[in-house]
Amino acid sequence: MRIGELAGLTGLSRDTLRFYERTGLLVSRRLPNGYRDFPPEAVPWLRYVRTAQALGFSLAEIARTGAELSAAPDAAERLSELFREKIALIDARTAELAALRADLAGRVGTGCPLAPA
Amino acid sequence: MRIGELAGLTGLSRDTLRFYERTGLLVSRRLPNGYRDFPPEAVPWLRYVRTAQALGFSLAEIARTGAELSAAPDAAERLSELFREKIALIDARTAELAALRADLAGRVGTGCPLAPA
DNA sequence: CTTGACCCTGGACAGTACTCCACCCTCCAG
DNA sequence: CTGGAGGGTGGAGTACTGTCCAGGGTCAAG
Fold first, then answer.
1. Residues paired with residue A37 on neighbouring β-strands, in sequence order
2. What is the per-residue pLDDT across B7-21, written as a single tens digit (0 to 9) for each?
3. What is the H or E stretch that residue B30 is in?
4. What are phi and psi of A38, to 5 degrees?
5. φ, ψ at B14 (rounded to 5°)
6. With an 8 Å Cβ cutoff, are B109 and A80 in contact?
7. Are A39 and B85 in contact (CB under 8 A)?
8. How many residue pairs from chains A and B have C-beta atoms closer than 8 A?
9. Percent of chain A with pLDDT over 70
10. What mean pLDDT comes out for the span B100-112?
11. Position A3 pLDDT exceeds 90
12. CB B97, CB A62: distance < 8 Å
């Protein structure tokens, strides 16, 4: 599909997609007229990219694991592994948030000294 | 205290502290010789800043609520309120992560099509 | 008085993630 | 054939969050 359609399907701008391609996050073939031609898998891939980004990964990291993935002979297995890693990360982050929450909750109502100088 | 001590106590660099001061995130008096003089409260305040940052607030937002706070007559009450807001935010974020986790967990082991083109 | 640790300022530079622009080409409908 | 939507490129610009540096002042110890 061409860039406009992909932009419509993902909610990303054309500029962002071109930017992602430049940084190696997205691959495309070219049509005879020079237009980019994205495969349909680009849609779930971009969903995955946004997920990973939400988890705090930089685009460079995401591109790296993506390249690793497509190079692996056992892509499905590697992907499952990656997902398991991400799940662990989510669990860690959730625990962090819980700790933060407890800390803050413990202070609500107390006249604690956190105001700037 | 002077900038070096604050840097030591918070783990931030002097440059970062000066940067925070420029952006209004941190306030200091000046000693007769021109050196910055930070109040001891700067330490918990910076801890709070890091917390808020971890929650996804930009430094500008943190500075804004900080200014608002120090202007408020009922600082302790406002702070508790802020904390309650942050707790709600944490809960929302935790729920998001849980959803993401469930999504990923459901896919582990399946040969799902998320590889880049 | 010199040395070294520490502080000051202003400004350049960096990495991340976009966003916008000028200028040009392609394609299809009317 | 023309107009307009949509595509391409290179490059500049932006916002955020720092980081580094040159050039220079301050201060206490030896």
1. A29
2. 999 999 999 999 999
3. strand B29-30
4. -95, 140
5. -55, -40
6. yes
7. no
8. 133
9. 88
10. 70
11. yes
12. no
Amino acid (1-letter code) at residue A10: T
**Calculated CA dihedral for residues B28, B29, B32, B36, nearest 10 degrees:** -10
Region of B49 on the Ramachandran plot (φ > 0 left; ψ -120 to 50 alpha; else beta): alpha
How far apart are the C-alpha atoms of A45 and A43, rounded to whole Å?
5
Report the alpha-carbon distance of residue B17 to residue B45 in Å, rounded: 12
Tens-place pLDDT, residues A44-80: 999 889 888 877 789 998 998 887 777 766 767 777 7
For strands B36-37 and B29-30, give the pairing.
antiparallel
Q: Do B80 and A109 touch (CB under 8 A)?
A: yes
Which region holds residue B58: left if phi is over 0, alpha if psi is between -120 and 50, else beta? Answer: beta
Which tokens belong to A85?
């890693």
Q: Report how far apart the first and last C-alpha atoms of chain B are (Å, whole number).
A: 56
Nearest by CB to B105, which of A45, A79, A87?
Answer: A87
CB B37 within 8 A of CB B74: no
**Structure token pair of residue B26:** 């941190």
Altogether, the residues listed in chain B come to a count of 117
B35: left (phi over 0), alpha (psi -120 to 50) or beta: beta
